[in-house]
Amino acid sequence: MGRKRCVGADCSKMAAGCCGVKKQKLSGSPGSGGPGGVGAGSGVAGTGHCGSELGIGSSATVAAAANVSRANGLGGPGGNVSGSSSSSGSSGTNALSPAPAGYTTSGLSPNLSPGPGSGSGGRKMVVSAEMCCFCFDVLYCHLYGYQPPRTPRFTNDPYPLFVTWKIGRDKRLRGCIGTFSAMNLHSGLREYTLTSALKDSRFPPMTRDELPRLFCSVSLLTNFEDVGDYLDWEVGVHGIRIEFFNEKGSKRTATYLPEVAKEQGWDHIQTIDSLLRKGGYKAPITNDFRKTIKLTRYRSEKMTMGYAEYIAHRQHHHYQNGIGHPLPPYNHYS
């Protein structure tokens, strides 16, 4: 099984992917795949879904802004993909920076925790709770008409990233959009916080009333590798992006973040077949066809924070992230 590192501009060609979908019934025969869906990409980097209410056969809708390819997804109604990809910020990934002082991954509450597969090799994680706080700051300031928060203190190194919003006790997907182009974290998180909260085509824009029930996840994507065997990846550890040609000979792409397959209880074949349907492949799926897939695997550092945790952090570290206004005396702050 040949492996090739995917670095620099090559990684920016990938369509963004999913980070969580509602449970969908997969056929007892893996070869039959899941429900059909509209295509995710036609050779261009696009957006993909990362955690939706159900239905994995959704297509990714590309929103190209500032020449950065966006990925939005996790099932649900989809749209056609169009747009171009261009790396924003550095084309590579700088040396990993330590998490900001005062934030560690140990002793976190159930709502403030690193996701599965976060970190690798015992090194200190780059993703931090402060990044989730910053996303909440950005969304809060937007919804209440305050000036945007000032530059945060965590590292500004470039990474491909996703911002995911879930809501309620059952943590239903509320929005998820990201990019496979490496973006400087300060501008990338600021942009995709609002894009995922307000412009995910599967959902209406978020409102103030929803804030107290929200959970925010930040995912930083790392360790991209092209592999020669479509089964050469580990469920719960790797995210995967596939590239294939559909029945009409058009190149298509689709992706799932590392947690999707494990959360859905899928094996390798079920995940691949679901991605094919998500990418718009409608013909019967055979093992011979699966062998034609080009697969890239990657890892993710993920941190999740609930709104209550965010408020607790901000009450103790009110100006740490540069937010320039007092916490308003609304009921959900009491």
UniProtKB/TrEMBL annotation:
> What SUPFAM superfamilies does the database record attribute to this sequence?
AMMECR1-like
Record-linked Pfam families: AMMECR1
Top-rank taxon: Eukaryota
| Residues annotated as domain AMMECR1 | 120-314
Q: Where is this region: Disordered?
A: 74-120
List, as start-end ranges, the regions of compositional bias called Low complexity.
82-92, 106-115
For this entry, the protein name equals AMMECR1 domain-containing protein
In its UniProt entry, the species of origin is given as Amphiprion ocellaris (Clown anemonefish)
